[in-house]
Amino acid sequence: MADFKQIEALFENAPIGIFETTVAGKFIDLNCEFVRILGYSSKEDVFENIKNLENDLYVDPNDRKKILDQLKKRDEITVVEVQFKKKDGSPIDVRMSIRPHEKQGRNNNTNIGLIEDITKTKQIEQSKALKDQRYKALFDESNDAILIFEGMELIEWNRKALALFEDSSKPGHVMNFFKMHPEKQSNGSVSTQKAQEIIEKTLAGEPQFFEWEHLNKHGEIFHTEVSLNRITQVNPNLFQALVRDVTGRYRAEQELKKSEQRYRTIIDTAPSGILTLTKHGVVKSSNQAFHELLGYDKTQIIGLHFTQLSGIKIGNYDEAIRAYDALIQKHRIKPFTLKWESVDHDEKIVEIKAIVFSNSDEDNVQIIVNDMTDHYKMVNKLRKLHSELTKHRDKLEELVQERTEEITALNEELTSSNEQLALQNTELTTLLEKLRDTQSQLVHSEKMASVGILAAGIAHEINNPINYINSGVTGLELLMLDLMEMLNPLFEKLDVQLGSNEELLEQKKMLDKAKNEVHQLVKTIKVGVMRTTEIVSSLRTFSRIDDDKRTYTDLKELIDSALIILRNKYKYHIEIEQQMTKDNTLMGNQGKLSQVILNILLNAIQAIDEKGKIVIKTVRNKATHTLQLIVADNGCGIPERVRAKIFDPFYTTKPVGEGTGLGLSIVHGIVEDHKGKIHIDSTQGVGTKFTITLPTNLDEKDFIR
């Protein structure tokens, strides 16, 4: 039994196909290699698809009939080459060794055979037969001039050589070797002397490849690449010269050098500091703006590792290293800021942007450095202004609180006086409630005025540098388009002249890749400008928050603006999912509805401590003429004892300094002003869902005044 299993394993794992068939033309058994050669997935797949060998396996059914005839004539192994059909219908050439097999105890004989795929061998044989013809054709039709020399004597040439070097005095012959060159090369060397040195090195067994200036049959100088090799099979003094006319490429390279110089000029005159590093962090180049920004001398930093540049503050050093490592590992990094001390000990705040780009066979890193010192000074001024406004608001709240306490004390005194003053007490209580509402509205008005001033100021200050960046990017894009238009004709000529030279084609591909990466870089900068513009636009929306005008408003746009403003509070730990209906418009106050959305979203964000999700959904009900805004989070939830008080003015569960308790109270008032309703569902530890229902069929006259 062990011997049988071993034989069975050898059969199944044999490196050639093995099969057994009936004389009638059906498979009895076959091994895995046979299945693989024919492109089937299993033996069962073969049995299912090949039920008649002549029609289902052989490309020519007559081939099997001929093989069977041969087997009848001689009872021995027959070797034939035939074509089989693979499962996908494609033909393959196989070499088959087959012989009849008579099984003991049976009347029916079978055929056992071996097959091997010789498709590639056949192809090689066919290509080999054409090799000599092709060699002759390649020699005569080559785009390169081919000249065969014995010593200094020219003995054979091809058509291209005749076209370049035909002797005008002897048509059909190539000119004398010494007439093919100008007297001197462009580097000042004497052509004949230099050529003699090169030929001697070639005959000594050193193949030569060099650039050379030749004279054509009209006596004009043209640029070539020459390859010299010995032909030792026949005569040790024979050598072959391959001459390629690269005049077009030479001119293109000269134009490319000019283009590179123009590109270098653009980089050097760019307003941002630009530093180019190798993938190992070594400084390759830098522009003038970088040196002016940080005070470095160009000769001092080339070849240094970027960690050797002094000035990065200790607290920012590790951040720079981490960012660089992530960049080299092909991760996208977001712009970040560093404190950097210039050579003159002037501390600056700089914004760092970095990309990886390929140059030849090596990845390089380009660092763009922008001075943000003035920007952060302005931000600090705005923060100081905000602090002053906050103090003003707090004093106002204290004043209102004092007046409220005085009125409350007076109310208590009048209540205790006698029953006759009960009616007056009721009137004073009503007055107290109105005063509290007035207090809430006044505090809200002051806070919104502060928000409007801050938003308008920030939008104005950011808008100017954004316009400057946008103009600079547009100018850079126009310059690059002009540069590409100048290079396109050269690329077209290169496509014709490069032929099959893989090295030159690869260089052209690199140029094309660099061109595309420049476009991608400009596109990336534009995306950054667009995102900043969106933030500015969102700030302007909230700067109009005290406007009492009612217009048709799109809730989707207000939600997007709020998410842009709050992005920094949720972008790293909260997933935002929007499920918006097609039509989200209604009549309302854009600024106040923006405040409602901002407050609801802010509460949802603050309810999530670590990772979480917020779902924003709108539902339009045409039957009831309403539009529902639903904001659901999976945060901490609201305790039941707190739920009944969350819309009360001045009630808050937040620590001192983080909230005044007016947010949801104001939201409730704005929703009522729009004839809407607000509902809350919350489970502690599970999450909270706010549902705001607003009518969509109101006119401006329907609003509460």
Strand sequence of the main sheet, in spatial order? 2-1-5-4-3
Poorly predicted sequence stretches spanning 5 or more consecutive residues = 656-661
Strand content: 15-25%
Structural class: alpha+beta
Mean pLDDT: 78
N/C terminus separation: 101 Å
In words, what does this structure look like?
- The chain is α+β, with helices and mostly antiparallel strands and 705 residues long.
- Helix content is 49%, strand content 23%.
- It contains 20 helices and 22 strands.
- Strand 21 (677-683) and strand 22 form a beta hairpin.
- Helix 10 (247-269) packs antiparallel against helix 15 and helix 15 packs antiparallel against helix 16.
- The radius of gyration is 43 Å and the shape is flat.
- The model is unreliable at 656-661 (pLDDT under 50).
What are the main properties of this structure?
20 helices; 5-stranded antiparallel β-sheet; 49% helix; alpha+beta; single chain; 705 residues; 22 strands
Walk me through the topology.
Layout: H1 2-13, E1 17-22, E2 27-30, H2 32-37, H3 43-49, H4 53-56, H5 61-73, E3 78-85, E4 91-101, E5 110-117, H6 119-129, H7 131-141, E6 145-150, E7 153-157, H8 159-165, H9 191-203, E8 208-215, E9 221-230, E10 238-245, H10 247-269, E11 273-278, E12 283-286, H11 288-294, H12 298-301, H13 314-328, E13 336-341, E14 347-359, E15 362-371, H14 373-417, H15 422-497, H16 502-543, E16 551-554, H17 555-570, E17 574-579, E18 585-588, H18 590-606, E19 612-621, E20 626-633, H19 640-643, H20 663-673, E21 677-683, E22 687-695
Parallel strand pairs: 17-19
Antiparallel strand pairs: 1-2, 1-5, 3-4, 4-5, 6-7, 6-10, 8-9, 9-10, 11-12, 11-15, 13-14, 14-15, 16-18, 19-20, 20-22, 21-22
Helix pairs in contact: 10-15, 14-15, 15-16, 16-17, 17-18, 18-20
